[in-house]
Amino acid sequence: KKQKTIGIGLLTAIIILFLGFTIGKNVHSEENQKETITEALLSKDPDKIAGVLTSKNANLEVTSDTVMPLVNFLEDNPDYLEDLVTNLHNDNEYGIFTIVQEGKKLGLYDAYKLQVLPIYFEVSTNVEGTVITLNGEELVTADKNDFIKKMGPFVPGLFNFEAVGTVNGYDLEATQTHSFLYPEEATTVNLELEGYEFSIQSDLSDATVYLDGEEIGTLSDGEGEFGPIKFEEGMEIHVEKAFDEGTIVSDPVD
Questions:
Q1: How many CB atoms lie under 10 A from the CB of residue 186?
Q2: Sign of the C-alpha dihedral, residues 150, 134, 182, 34?
Q3: How far apart are CA 46 and CA 181, in angstroms?
Q4: Could you read off the pLDDT of 104-122 as tens digits, one per residue?
Q5: Is the model more confident about 125 or about 186?
Q6: Tens digits of residue pLDDT in 205-230
Q7: Taking the alpha carbons of 26, 31, 33, 38 in that order, is the dihedral positive or negative?
Q8: What is the β-pairing status of strands 196-201 and 223-229?
Q9: Cα end-to-end distance, the chain, whole Å
Q10: CA-to-CA distance for 238 and 201, rounded, in angstroms?
Q11: Fewer CB near the terminus (10 Å): N or C of the chain?
Q12: Which residues pair with 141 in a beta bridge?
């Protein structure tokens, strides 16, 4: 009777294990995992995309933050996203993306992920001390004039660059937006700081100069050189000089 009970228990355990393995094999099938990958892309959710993405490059960190360029690109290019999902379903690859087997799930089933080729690019600027940001995060600070540096690896996608620096006491900036999807597309992003220089003359020999109401310097013998400044439409310049009897203010000049 005891042996019979043990035998039934063992048989039951074997059946449960077999059923569990069969169900797990179906749940974690290549087709179902492929569906999870494409659903993550269609969701445009950075956490979900980071969860299915991988790279051969060990230096490429895949997180919800580092996949944001790809998320932004997919947001702006719905036709590309549609083609990407269709080709991954049919051929397991599209451009820089390939569905590959990587590791195991639960130690039993083949795991599949979306492998991506990383990109590198160079950033350059012309002013030492310029801070270059990428998608709102500080990337690098120029340590010399004519600065150039290779950066990467990055998850491909849409990149917003901004450079902010100071020239002769004036703040200047440069911005650029690039879409890099293929390694051969990546190039030098030139963030050269440029501004406008101008001269002022006035019969008020040592007047104070104002740009849009903000003091920017003083004339010497009625003359002065200013800039470079970042030009914006509608800017106005005027000069002022204080006397005992009051202050003389010039008419504004566009």
A1: 21
A2: positive
A3: 17
A4: 765 567 889 999 999 999 9
A5: 125
A6: 999 999 999 999 999 999 999 988 88
A7: negative
A8: antiparallel
A9: 105
A10: 11
A11: N
A12: 131
